[in-house]
Amino acid sequence: MASESSRSSRSRGSAQKRGILCGHGERPVLRVSGTKENPGRRFWGCVYYEVNDECHFFRWAIPEARSEDPHVVRLKRKVVVLKADMKACEWKLKVAAVFGMVGWVGCVCCWLQVLLNHNQGLPCLVPLKLG
């Protein structure tokens, strides 16, 4: 009896608000499917589902969409295309950042080489008049 009351108390929902009753005259209980076809999908079932096989009350809590709206299908395709474009742009940005960093490092190395050669009195490729 205690298990029945705990099961029915946790399942306040739309089926109970509408006064739907199973074959035993009891309010249905919200359950979660564990089948391969519908894993995690919620359904309304008889309180005595696992105890008594006489009642076969069953109703999906949220019915599946029978056919999707064409507008929704187009939007889903657009999302896929935009995500692919975003990945391509992110890749290009990373490549540009790497080239930029390599360019700056190259410029700093050349500048340091020119300064070191000038301080040591060595000839450099680009004559500079520093101080």
UniProtKB/TrEMBL annotation:
This is GRF-type domain-containing protein. The keyword Transmembrane helix applies. Pfam families: Zn_ribbon_GRF. InterPro entries: Znf_GRF. PANTHER family: ZINC ION-BINDING PROTEIN (PTHR33248). The chain crosses the membrane at residues 95-116. Residues 22-64 form the GRF-type domain. Keywords: Membrane, Metal-binding, Transmembrane, Transmembrane helix, Zinc, Zinc-finger. It comes from Arachis hypogaea. One of its GO terms (molecular function) is zinc ion binding. It comes from the Eukaryota.
